[in-house]
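User: I'm putting together notes for a lab meeting next week and I want to include a structural view of one of the chains we've been expressing. I don't have a solved structure, so I'd like a prediction I can at least talk through. The sequence is below, exactly as it appears in our construct file.
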Amino acid sequence: MSKTHSQKFVDLVNEALSRVAEISCDDVNKALNQSSTFVLIDTREVHEFINGHLPGAIHLSKGVIERDIEEHVSDTDTELILYCGGGYRSVLAGDNLQKMGYSNVKSMAGGWREWIENEYETEL
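Assistant: Thanks for the context. Below is the predicted structure for the 124-residue chain, given as structure tokens.
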């Protein structure tokens, strides 16, 4: 990762990772190409989302996802794949969604940065 995070933040993310499954960018790309059924959620800030996002993603930033998720996904068994810039915010958001009863939550490892490095499709 290009960003340096505080140790306390990294510890918090690692704790959440013990509860939230990760999925690779490659596997998300394959799932998109196979038209698999899941909801793709961009947890970045709105200015990040409007500058580009994964195809078909909806925007629910980490700051509002817990408040607004039920408006977009009422079935708590729905597969949710969350991503952010590097894979930290999405893990934390996913942890909270699981606490709310969502049972099929994954966080995309490497986030947007890895997606772009792999030159996978994006949309505006």
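A couple of points you could mention at the meeting. The longest strand covers residues 39-42. The chain has one domain: 7-117.

User: Perfect, that's what I needed.
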